[in-house]
Amino acid sequence: MVHGWYNTQFRCLAIADNRASLYDQRLKIELSGKYMLRIFIFVLALVLGQTSAMATSLFSAEVVLDDSDAATEQAAKEAAFVDVLIRASGQSEVGNNPVIQKTLPTVNQYITQLGYGDVDGQRSLVLGFDDRKIRTLLTQSQATYWGTPRPEILFWLVEDNASQRNVVWEQSVSPLINELKAEGERRGLPVLMPVGDFDDVVAVSIPDLWGGFAGPIAQASARYNPAGVAVVKVRNNGISWQLFPNAASIGKDAPVEGRASGVPEQAFATMIDEMADFYSARLAVNLGVADSDAKVLEVSGLDDAEDFFVIERTLKGLNSVASLRLESIIEGTATFRVSLLASEDIFHNEMMVDRRLRRVEALPEPVIEETTSPLVTESVDGVIVPVEPTPVAEPVEAAIQYEWIG
Fold it and tell me: Does one domain contain both 219 and 163?
């Protein structure tokens, strides 16, 4: 009896221990799962935060003000606007686009934030621009748009001081780092710098970098997981550089090479422009012309080809017109698709400056089209016969109409 009682108690304790052990294991799994989920959420938030920060920086700028004059501030706004357009489009020459040039005097309509700051003791203008309007403008100007995320480039800088050569690390106290990062920010090209710890020093040597040896450079760069890798030789009178656009294929693809003269600040600007142009040519999207917001414009009274060419030149020269496309010429009436940079009222005011034009007020005329509804039938003296669908009037897009009276 005693032995039986002890055996029963031991079995109960064993079952309890097993249940406790299973509970502990399940609890560990649940806690581990929650921990991993938190890590995933944290990493995701970090990545999205970096992407959001990059997207925000694309449409903001800071410009030093030489004085408090209104003309100076307007010039600063226009300069900041062009900087943002270059960054967003990926095109270093986008500021010379005729459509962009037309918008500069009306830069205020693109500004969403305005404030004042300080840059090295000088008063500055801090601006934020409307990303949606920027995209629309780039579309109207038939420019490209380079969105996010953008390729991160790891820069190995080797400074040659005639007597010796040194690698510029992230932890180095060197003005070259800030100058390089500032140029990268100007073009929206993320700049990474090697930290210069034991792993970096062991993985690659100065002769490896100076000689452009792909194997050690690829091995030392892998830990940073960059999109591309650049090796830059900095001398007193300029720089020379190699860009491996795809870090995963270093040694397989030929690098992009370049040179730039001048002090590092000027040379870095030239180098970053060339690198950003290289990547944007491959990654930016050609937006084309936005027909969805275009207006139909009809100009009647054109007696001959000379009249047509005059009105076409007139329209293209208006500050409110971004793009113009001829759709048809029928019996002296030219129909255009016109994309406007301003309101119709501003467009009309510009048109009325030319006394050879007169605005025509007209209501849209309906177009009669057959419905696409199912066949309708009715009974006539007990016989089922089809009934023709009733035509419906569908309004067409109202055109802006002018008459040429020149």
Answer: yes
What is the Cα–Cα distance from 197 to 219, expressed in whole angstroms? 15
For the segment 321-346, what is each residue's pLDDT rounded down to a tens digit? 888 889 999 999 999 999 887 788 87
Note whether residue 377 is domain-resident: yes
For residues 172 and 262, membership in a common domain is answered with: yes
Q: Considering the chain, what is the average pLDDT of its residues? A: 82
Same domain? 121 vs 177: no
Q: How far is CA 262 from CA 159, 232, 256, 384, in A?
A: 15, 14, 20, 91
Tokens 């001959």, located at residue: 304
Residues 164, 262 within the same domain: yes
**E-only strand ranges, 236-365:** 238-244, 256-261, 285-286, 295-300, 321-330, 333-340, 357-360
Give residue-wise pLDDT tens across range 231-275: 999 998 899 999 999 998 998 989 999 999 999 889 999 999 999
Rg from Cα positions in the chain: 34
Domain membership of residue 39 (yes or no) is no
170 bridge partner residues: none
d(CA 58, CA 128): 9
Q: Determine the Cα–Cα distance for residues 353 and 406; give it in Å rounded to an integer.
A: 13
Q: Are residues 276 and 301 in the same domain?
A: no
Round to whole Å and give the CA distance between 340 and 350.
Answer: 12
- CA dihedral (43, 48, 49, 54) in degrees, to 10, reads 130
Give residue 130's identity as a one-letter amino acid code: D
- Structurally, the chain folds into a number of domains equal to 3
- Both 180 and 243 in one domain: the answer is yes
Structure tokens belonging to residue 77? 């706004």
Q: What is the pLDDT of residues 113-128, one digit of tens each?
A: 999 999 888 999 999 9
Instruction: Kindly indicate the confidence band of residue 40, based on its pLDDT and cuts at 50, 70 and 90.
Output: very low
Q: Contact 135/66 with Cβ under 8 angstroms?
A: no
**Alpha carbons 330 and 348: distance in angstroms, whole number:** 23
CB atoms within 10 A of CB 31: 10
- Domain holding 195, by residue range, is 153-283
